[in-house]
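name: query_chain
kind: protein
chains: 1
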Amino acid sequence: GNMGSYYIPPVNFGLVEDNLYRSGQPVELNHPFLEKLNIKKILYFSSEPPPPGFQSFVSDQGIELLQLGAAMEEQKSSLWSPMSEEVVLQALREILDVENNYPICLIDSVGRNRVGIVVGCLRKLQRWNLTSIFEEYRRYAGSKVRILNEQFIELFDTDLVTFDQGHKPQWL
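structure:
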């Protein structure tokens, strides 16, 4: 039985906004914790499919998993770019659709780079100053800070993000 089990969050798990979560790749130990969040959708940033154990957890829970960046490796827009702008924009469209997608969780292998970029671009959309954005990014990146990721966030053009004003999240 699960009676004595503890709820253990995945690596680099965090709350971005109400019902908007971020984390690294969950392992089986984390499933009971995730179950309690009643997640409706997962944005999965990886060129690899999720591990089989996680795939079955997701389908058992009736969670919709959207893999972003599957073709990322093939079509690198420019060599230095850590992530294509298109992937970030697609992710933000999903994140801004609170009505249909929440609770939602953003996942990459360690919850650091790709998720960090998406959250950073979201913060820019929220008009956070860069100091605060990078502070949050570094809190998750630890010693693995990538200058190119911070540069990507800094240069990200929030005008490219389109959303329905009538349906935008309260925190925007």
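note: DSSP finds seven helices and five strands in the chain.
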